[in-house]
Design brief:
It is built from 14 helices and 18 strands. The protein has 500 residues and is of the alpha+beta class.
Length: 500
């Protein structure tokens, strides 16, 4: 009898090798581990002596809560709402003060600088910072007093930002909440989670946060933010074996965090510029293949202008989502591929770089996840220097180099994550060779043509019958081969693209 292959162990081995192949560090150096051993927590992080720091506010009494994935342990942000009047709300976002513990030039800091982000693969996580830091010492864990940077925003009923402030504070997380259970309650499909009902006032506070987030989102979409819904599938394990691929769907709780973080990132970028500081911005430039986007819209009898226009594209997306919600993620995926990838760019205080096309925002500096993303830690150092009236800790040239490095490393990280996802999908499909599926073309270039199945969220290469196909076209394919070690899933075309 054949030995049962343990999927998790196979994927862990593949992930480790992929990290090395792409120039990433899967392990912390001996120097970083030695630093961790010697790490003595500053008193300011351990016990909260607010009285000795005139620039640190005591905000431990507020109804702060975190909303994240069920299994998240590196909690970077908390949020809380305070109604100001019938139409105005004060939203506060607290960001973990990671810089207080992870110093520039330290071995731990150099590891973070090299990888630039935590790497989340199907079978294991390669954290940007040692877990004792990112999931304990700086994580905004429940009932722990922590230093944070607070971004305060006054928001009107129409979603417009009236005023904003940034300051340091001591905070305490009252409740660790999970997206799905909070969303089910907010959307009327579930009861109030006990973590909410057990804390007086928290349920009402979350409803205010939800309404404010929806107002922020509506205004962004008026300005042309894109309503995209791509399918992201994560392997679900039963013990050490993959049982299925689960799709993560957008919901009201995710939107609270998403919309607050977009707003907070805008405030951060503008604050640094107003302080005469450079920043690292996240940009998505003019779409590289707008002509193909126009062509696809035309196939749906919708006319887009020849010059890229996010408002017109958003109008098309909203119309198609209403017309065919089941197939909308496939259209979204097509548009995402044609928009092109985002990148990090260093922006001088008086600069005028392009904004984020997909979010319809001009000012966007990653700042809300310093435990798991290096650009956010850089931004935090810039922010703290600006708040304290210190000189800029990085020159524009240094930031240019770091921005390029962060873009390149992020690309490598995505390749590792995709590689393991593909191997996981190959494990799931290896017993189904010969089966036929409906698919959509997701990539077409000299390197090859890729398709995604419509019934199972899996992408693979079209090795036969790809001539003349382009992104967004649908067809019938047959699974011809899988290679778990290489992460290859091969298909051949069975029938021509079908009409939409």
């Amino acid at each position: 009898m054949k030995d049962v292959k343990h999927h998790r162990a196979i994927l862990q081995s593949i992930a480790y090798k992929a990290m090395l192949e792409h120039g990433l560090l899967p392990d912390f150096s001996a120097e970083a581990l030695a630093e961790l051993e010697e790490l003595q927590l500053p008193v300011s992080i351990k016990v909260a002596p607010v009285e000795t720091h005139s620039d640190i506010r005591d905000m431990r009494n507020l109804l702060w809560a975190s909303i994240d994935n069920n299994n998240s342990r590196d909690l970077d942000q908390l949020s809380v709402a305070e109604p100001i009047s019938e139409s105005k709300v004060r939203i506060m976002v607290a960001i973990a003060d990671v810089d207080s513990l992870v110093k520039e030039g330290s071995a731990i800091g150099e590891h973070a600088r090299h990888n630039t982000t935590s790497v989340y693969t199907a079978a294991m996580i390669f954290p940007m910072l040692p877990e004792i830091i990112s999931t304990d010492l700086t994580s905004l864990n429940p009932n722990e007093e922590r230093l944070a940077l607070v971004i305060e925003m006054e928001v009107d009923a129409d979603g417009s930002l009236l005023d904003s402030r940034i300051f340091r504070a001591m905070v305490c997380n009252r409740a660790k909440l999970a997206y799905n259970s909070i969303a089910a309650w907010l959307e009327g499909n579930g009861i109030v989670p006990e973590a909410v009902s057990s804390i007086p006032g928290l349920a009402e506070n979350l409803r205010v946060q939800d309404q404010t987030a929806q107002n922020l989102k509506k205004l962004r979409h008026v300005h042309g933010a894109l309503s995209l819904e791509t399918i992201e599938a994560k392997p679900v394990f039963d013990g050490d074996q993959i049982r299925s691929l689960e799709i993560e769907e957008k919901n009201r709780a995710r939107e609270i965090i998403e919309d607050f973080m977009i707003a907070a990132n805008g405030v951060t970028a503008r604050y640094l510029s107003a302080s005469g500081f450079p920043s690292i911005r996240r940009v998505v430039r003019i779409p590289k293949r707008w002509d193909r986007i126009v062509e696809i819209a035309g196939e749906y009898k919708f006319s887009l202008p020849e010059i890229p226009d996010s408002k017109a594209l958003e109008e098309f997306l909203v119309k198609q989502k209403a017309a065919d919600p089941i197939r909308f993620p496939d259209l979204s995926l097509t548009i995402v591929k044609l928009l092109g990838a985002g990148e990090y760019v260093a922006e001088p205080p008086d600069g005028d770089i392009p904004g984020h096309f997909g979010l319809a925002v001009k000012d966007y500096a990653h700042s809300t996840a310093p435990n798991r993303r290096y650009p956010d830690l850089l931004t935090q150092r810039l922010l703290k220097a600006a708040l304290e009236g210190k000189t800029v800790p990085y020159s524009k040239d240094e930031l240019d180099v770091l921005a390029t490095h962060c873009t390149e490393a992020e690309d490598s990280v995505k390749k590792v994550e995709r590689r393991v996802e593909k191997s996981a999908a190959a494990l799931l499909l290896e017993s189904r060779i010969g089966e036929r599926f409906d698919a959509i073309v997701t990539g077409a270039s000299e390197k090859g043509t890729w398709v995604r199945l419509l019934t199972i969220p899996v992408e693979g290469k079209l090795v036969n019958g790809f001539e003349g196909l382009d992104v967004g076209e649908r067809l019938r394919v047959q699974l011809t081969d899988t290679n778990v070690e290489q992460g290859f899933i091969d298909f051949k075309k069975i029938s021509s693209p079908r009409h939409k």
